[in-house]
Amino acid sequence: MADLIDTVVYAARIKDRDVLNSSSSGGAFTALSDFFLEHGDAVVASAYDYYEHAVKYQLMQSKEQRDQAKGSKYIQSKPCDIFQQAYQWLVDHPHGRLLFVGTGCQAEGFRQYVDIKKVRDRVWIVDIVCHGSPSPKLWREYAQQIQNRNKGTITYLTFKDKRNGWISPTAYAEINGEEVGIEEYVRIFYNQCVLRPSCYECPYATAERKTDITIGDFWHIEETIPDFYDKYGNSLFLIHTNQGEKLFNAIKVNLEYRLSDTKQCWQENLEAPTKRSEQRDKFWNDYQKKGVYFIMKKYGTTPLKSKIKNKIVKLISIGGGKT
After folding, report:
1. Phi, psi for residue 116 in degrees, rounded to 5
2. Does one domain contain both 166 and 306?
3. What is the pLDDT of residue 302?
4. In which residue ranges of the chain is pLDDT below 70?
């Protein structure tokens, strides 16, 4: 049984540097899913569908399939019939185990589902620290726009390439073998206008949850645990159940890890939902009347005044560091 325990916090990252460099943060998802896949079990997670420009949950039984699910995706994922697929897999594999990885709301839905089906003891549920789910329709229109503009199709997509380090990720799509920046979409994702209304009242934006483990970026680790910080990625593990504790103990041989606490790992979405922007209604009115191209230019670009201000602040900071 997955009995709740007092939440235990770890900072961690996978030891394999190649995996770390290709992960959005510290490789937590790979470390967890490897344990199941290497034992012939199954993983349920979301992957990007390049044909439909949508993120969909899939049942995965190989590392090749799993690798398609690596990386943060700032797009709402579709569960489709994954709950039924997962349950059927468990029925067909009576000795098998399954790992489910998803957002707080979807993970809670799955937790309740497997409780009803009486298979909870064979399922490990991991949720992620979530900023919120944006409109999938807006993303599809944006993806189509940049494809039309660049006369090609998106063949690769990343929101957190770490070429400049984990703290300053690069977001881009690959079209015709060329990188196309998608920073304007990322800015809109973080401007608190595009999320579902329910995300502003999310009951899962807390450090205490009913899943087995919560994972995410260990933001501010360079300040709170500076001697453990790695510029190529740092993951957060929140262990909520005895079942989650057993899983972490099983995978920690593949991790560098440090016991932490909720003060060191603090971030807004572990305390409260993302706040609703005062511009949200205006944003959606602009979108309905003028379309995705207009809102990307209006809300997704940095104003010239802000660019100049940021440049001055940076120069002052550099100059101050030399004196």
Report:
1. -60, -40
2. yes
3. 66
4. 302-323
Residue 208 and residue 142 share a domain: no
Query: How many domains would you assign to the chain?
Result: 2
Could you list the residue range(s) of the whole structural domain that residue 143 is in? 136-193+278-322
Do 30 and 105 sit in the same domain of this protein? yes
Q: Are strands 54-60 and 42-49 parallel, antiparallel or unpaired?
A: antiparallel
Mark whether 204 and 262 lie in a shared domain. Answer: yes
**How far apart are the C-alpha atoms of 260 and 207, rounded to whole Å?**
13
DSSP 276: P
Q: Give CA–CA dist 262/7, Å, rounded.
A: 9
Alpha helix ranges (H) inside the chain: 17-22, 28-37, 63-67, 82-92, 104-116, 136-150, 183-190, 221-224, 242-251, 280-299, 304-322
Q: Tell me how far apart the alpha carbons of residues 248 and 70 are, in angstroms, rounded to a whole number.
A: 19
Cα-only R_g, the chain = 20
- 270-272-278-282 Cα dihedral, nearest 10 degrees: 70
> Is residue 99 domain-shared with residue 26, that is, in the same domain?
yes
Distance CA 74, CA 260 (A): 27
Length of the chain: 323
Beta-bridge partner residues of 241: 4
- pLDDT at residue number 117: 98
In 3D space, the residue among 210, 205, 190, 199 whose CA is nearest the CA of residue 270 turns out to be 205
Indicate yes or no: pTM above 0.85: yes
The gap between the terminal CA atoms of the chain, to the nearest Å, is: 60
Whether 36 and 177 share a structural domain: no
Give the CA-trace dihedral at 202, 7, 73, 115, to 10 degrees: -70
Taking a C-beta distance cutoff of 8 angstroms, is the pair 100, 29 a contact?
no
Cα 168 to Cα 15, 45, 161, 236: the distances in Å are 21, 25, 9, 18
d(C-alpha 260, C-alpha 201), whole Å: 28
C-alpha dist (Å) from residue 101 to 66, 135, 312: 11, 21, 42
